[in-house]
Design goal:
- By secondary structure, this protein is mainly beta.
- The chain folds into 2 domains: about 55 residues, no CATH class; about 90 residues, Immunoglobulin-like (Sandwich).
- The protein contains 1 helix and 12 strands, in the order αββββββββββββ.
- Strands 6, 7, 8, 9, 10, 11 and 12 form a 7-stranded mixed beta sheet that branches. Strands 1-4-5 form a 3-stranded antiparallel beta sheet, with no helix packed on it. Strands 2-3 form a two-stranded antiparallel sheet.
- A hairpin with a 5-residue loop joins β2 and β3.
- It starts with a helix and ends with a strand.
- About 10% of the residues have low confidence.
């Protein structure tokens, strides 16, 4: 028994530290393109990404990647830089409506409010002037001239000291 105990200690204290293989991963677009317009605006898109752990290139310039195709990549846009208006700060009544719609917003800071009425194709039907708001703001909107359908009100609030906020709200016109 002592022999096994001594051999175990010798093995544990004198063995070399082994290292795992070094794998360098990379991400490649599976399909896509990039384009630049004359005004300097560029657009780049990809359809899926290939997360590769090994990439081989043959003499004929064909390439082979091992890994997996990632079809649904989280979308990252700049829209997250906006703060959305809390739904409890906005009231649109009655909804659905036949003609008149009461818009009420409540901000606890001073700022500028703009809003637009858009139809279902995002065509602007009405654009408000810039309105200085502090606290509760009410206005009555007349939708009587608009045909029945789905409309949206896009609100934009820029606080004098703070971030801008926006929200889009659905209205049904009967």
């Amino acid at each position: 028994m002592l022999k096994y105990y001594i051999l175990l200690h010798i093995f544990l204290f004198t063995s070399n530290v082994s290292r795992a293989q070094n794998v360098i991963s990379s991400v490649h677009n599976a399909s896509g393109t990039s384009s630049t317009a004359e005004n300097g605006i560029s657009l780049t898109y990809s359809v899926g990404e290939l997360a590769s752990i090994e990439h081989f290139i043959g003499n004929n310039q064909y390439s082979l990647s091992t890994g997996f195709l990632q079809m649904h990549v989280p979308l990252v846009t700049s829209i997250s830089t906006f703060n959305f208006i809390d739904k409890n700060r906005v009231s649109l009544l009655p909804n659905p409506t036949i003609q008149f719609l009461q818009l009420q917003v409540n901000f606890n800071q001073i700022g500028i409010l703009n809003f637009k009425i858009l139809d279902a194709t995002s065509s602007q039907k009405y654009v408000s002037p810039s309105i200085s708001v502090s606290g509760i703001y009410n206005t009555k909107l007349d939708l009587g001239a608009y045909p029945a359908g789905v409309y949206y009100i896009k609100l934009h609030f820029q606080a004098n000291k703070g971030n801008q906020q926006q929200g889009i709200y659905k209205i049904i016109k009967l």
